[in-house]
What we know:
With 212 residues, the chain is an alpha+beta fold. 15% of the residues lie in helices and 36% in strands.
Amino acid sequence: MARPPQQQCFFTDTTFDPQQGVAMPQADVYWSPNWLASNQADAFFTSLREQAAWQQLPISMFGRTVMQPRLLAWYGDHAYTYSGLTLSPRPWTSELLDLKARVEAATHARFNTVLLNLYRDGSDYMGWHRDDELELGKQPTIASVSLGASRRFLFRHPKRQLKREFLLDHGSLLVMAGETQTHWQHSVPKTQKPLGERINLTFRWLNSEEAK
């Protein structure tokens, strides 16, 4: 499948103000803390928690195989491989298509896959990484929707020794575009605070031809 004709983000939708761009060097990051209304976010969380095909799978980390410290589900048009793990896509559900359409309208980018992560409590986490697989292209646009419990989301620029932190709340939208994945890593750290469940969805455009 060919790359979509436009992968840059133009946040001209009234639900996503371009002034919400975050000042980070060598990055295009945009954040809307209250992107979804509370009742809409509640409905999406309940539906996805009950109906998504959640699973816990092993991945390769630092030369050894471990179980991922969270549950995940992969939907869309293509398989996806990272950390020695290949995810076969499940077909889009009506809820995911609805949310995808909202994200595409807000960002003016196109997406053909989505990764869902379920953080069951504060001990579930995401380690430092970049979303820089070949299938995502050189400057991918990744739109991240958060539902449920608020979690810290960290950025770090290893070469410049820079860090940024966000608290991703219920119904928020964070977009990473441009050179963000080239220069910045991100993570969701563990916490000992008692927390409820959180669902995070990262919409991506996956082009299988890029990996060939």
